Structure formats: structure tokens, C-alpha cells
Amino acid sequence: MVRTLFVALLALIVGTSSPAGAQRVPMNADAIIARHIQARGGESALRALRTVVYDDGAYSENGQVEDTHAVMMLMRPYYKLVGHPQRSPQFLEGYDGAAWEWYGLSSDLTFNLRTVGAASEASRHYAEIEGPFLDYAAKGSRVELIGTASSGGRRAYQVRLTMMDGYVTDQFIDTQTFMIIASRHTAEIHAFGEAVTSETRFSDFRRVAGVMFPFVSSEVEIATGRELGAMRWGRIDVNVDIPVAWFSPPVFEHTPMQAFLEQIYSERTDTQAVLWTYHNFRRVHPELDTRSGIQTIGYNLLKMGNVEQAIALLDRNAADYPQNADAAFNLGRAYATAHRNADARREFQRALQLQPGHERATRALAALP
Length: 369
Fold this sequence. Notes:
The protein is α+β, with helices and mostly antiparallel strands. It starts with a helix and ends with a helix. The protein has helices at 2-15, 29-40, 43-47, 117-124, 256-266, 271-284, 291-304, 307-320, 325-337, 341-354, 359-367; strands spanning 51-61, 64-75, 79-82, 91-95, 99-104, 110-114, 142-151, 154-162, 168-174, 180-188, 195-208, 211-221, 227-232, 235-238. The protein folds into two domains: 45-247, outer membrane lipoprotein receptor (LolB), chain A, CATH 2.50.20; 256-367, Serine Threonine Protein Phosphatase 5, Tetratricopeptide repeat, CATH 1.25.40.10. The chain is globular. Helix 6 (271-284) runs parallel beside helix 8, helix 7 packs parallel to helix 9 (325-337) and helix 8 (307-320) packs antiparallel against helix 9 (325-337).
């Protein structure tokens, strides 16, 4: 009897340990999200953000440093830009209501592409400056509390976020700090490789203008624990003035080569139109070297999911430049994307015959099943 009363008293004490008059809020998805928004700085502080600039980023991929001056900008209502038009004009990608990529590789290899499929998803997702949860229903998203789980050794609420287009991520919200410490999703590597389930882990949270931001992120493959990529931001600035024009592709006067490359891309769903345009341009402009441009466009066709058209285009390119190792490699990559492994192996081996030690062909050949 005494033991029973003690247990009941203990339960009463634990159950009423909140401040006087306070009610215990059930930990459903919306309650957790409310706590998360408050932990970040509160709804007012998040709504006060006009622009956010992530700057001086050090990005590494598969253990190799890829960029030491990465930049990403966000601006209301949903603008997003990766890169800097003045500091790194060679490659930009963004979202201005539709996703795009800009290539400023050389005088002839300058063009812009409006992307679709997985490449478009990568640009448009998380373009909202306040994060995915504030006003999530108005954005067309749904949330579901899956339960609690461990991420990086920390206990977290696992909240599933399903966006309007069906894209699903599991957001892990720390049970103590209520910050998002990880985000788990399944996506294709480089938009056309094999689908991989990975978890991006966030750390080094700092307050900027009253709002908490993670300065470090690391993407880890769930199956192997291998780090796929990591980013460390040097600084984050908020509410700086950014020209709205930066969030759209640069406007420029096209050379015949530039117009040709964009035309090929625009016809990407029609194999015969692609080959016709390619043949006519090569016939009229035999003096122009099209191999690098076509290889870049072929890569983007793969990203858009136009694998048949990419193979046809890159096969013609390899035939026109039979001594070019990169042409063979790019055709092999297209075959590998289509799971035509024997054809892919033949082209990777041909690239290595033309250029012994070709690094990308060596890695791609080793990765074939």
C-alpha cells in the first residue's frame, strides 16, 4: 500500500512539474514545429528576414575540396542563387519562379538552361528564406510525426515533411534544443546517378540577427556511413541589399555556337530533332569545335532524364571526334546511366586507351557492376 502511494505521488510530482498554471503540450508534429520556430528565434524574427547570404563556404565532396569560396543567397519570396554573378560567373544555378543553370565557361561555351526533373528539385527545394516549417501548409506541404530516433548520437523527434511535389524528407529536431540537427532523404547522386539515402547533419549553430543558423553541414550515406559532402560557411549575413536581377540567368547576345547549344537543349525530348539540329550546325559550321559544348549539353540531358537523346547526341559527338578521350568517357557515362554496362565498359576502356590514366574513366570503370 505504501509503495502504491509512493508511485502515485511520484507520478503526480512529475506530471505537475511545469510552472504553475502551465499546461503540458502534447508532442504532436505542430507542437514540435512551434517549439522549433521559437528555438530558432521566433516567428517575428524569421519573418523579418529579407535576404540571407551564406558566404565564404568551404565545400568538399568525397573527401576532396571542390570550392573554398562557395556562396548561396536567398531572398523573399522564394528566390535562390548558388554562386556569385561577379565573383564566380563560370557557373551559377538558381530559382526565380523556375529553376535554371548558367554556364559561362568560355566565349563560346556560355549558355543558360531552364532545368526540370531532379535538377529542378534541387534548386527549388528549400528556397524559402524562413525554412521549411513556417507556414508549411500554405506552401502545400504536409507534416507527420514518425516518432523519436537517434541522429549522430543525439535524440530527436523525426518529423516527416512531404512537399507539394511529393518530395519527402525526414527532419530530425533535437528533443532538447529543438533545432533541426539532421535531414534524411533519398535522391539521385548528381541528379542522374543511382538513388542514395543520405542524412545531412547540421551543427555549429550561431545566432545572426536574432535567428539561429547552422554554419556546418555534412551529408552521410546511411548504408555505409561514408561522408558524401561537407560545407562550412565562413559567415552568414542577413538583410543585405541584393539586385533582384541576380536571381535570374544573365542576359547576353548569343553567338551562333551559344544559340546552337541552347537549341539542342530545348529540343531534348525529341531525338530526331536533336540529331537534325546537330547535323545541320556541323555542316554549316565545320570550322567550329563543338565537342566540349555537346558534352556539356549531353551531361545536362542526362540530368533532365532524357537518356535516349543524350546517348544519341553523345554517340554522334564521339564519332565526329574519335580521338578525344572525353568524348568516349561522356558516351560511356550515358550508357552507364541507361544500365547498358557492356557498352559503358567499352567506352570507358576506349577513353583510357586514348588517354592512359584518364581519372574520370578510371573511377567510372571501377564503379561498374
